[in-house]
Amino acid sequence: MESLILFSPLVSFVLVGLFGRRIGDLASAILTILGGAFAFIFSLQALPKAL
User: Fold this and answer.
1) By CB neighbour count within 10 A (0-12 exposed, 13-18 middle, 19+ buried), where does 22 fall?
2) 20 and which of 16, 34, 37, 48 could share a cystine (Cβ 3.0–4.6 Å)?
3) pLDDT tens-place string over residues 5-48
4) Helix 2-23 and helix 25-50: axis angle, to 10°?
5) CA–CA distance, 45 with 6 (Å, rounded to integer)
6) What are phi and psi of 24, to 5 degrees?
7) Which of 7, 4, 13 is CA-nearest to residue 33?
8) CA-CA distance, 30 to 4, in Å (whole number)?
């Protein structure tokens, strides 16, 4: 679970960096936002374990 917190924004960054021009601006923005949102959701799930 903790690795998903780290790797979801990283994967979205790499995908947008490599394929951003091909998939377009809107899809790049959505992919970037989803990477951050997934990291936020996973960190909320890991919060009780950390406390």
Assistant:
1) exposed
2) 16
3) 999 999 999 999 999 999 999 999 999 999 999 999 999 999 99
4) 180
5) 14
6) 95, 170
7) 13
8) 18
Structure-token pair, residue 41: 């959701």
Paired tokens of 15:
């995908």
Q: Are 2 and 10 in contact (CB under 8 A)?
A: no
The pTM for the full model equals 0.83
Structural domain total, the chain: 1
DSSP symbols for 1-51: -HHHHHHHHHHHHHHHHHHHHHH-HHHHHHHHHHHHHHHHHHHHHHHHHH-
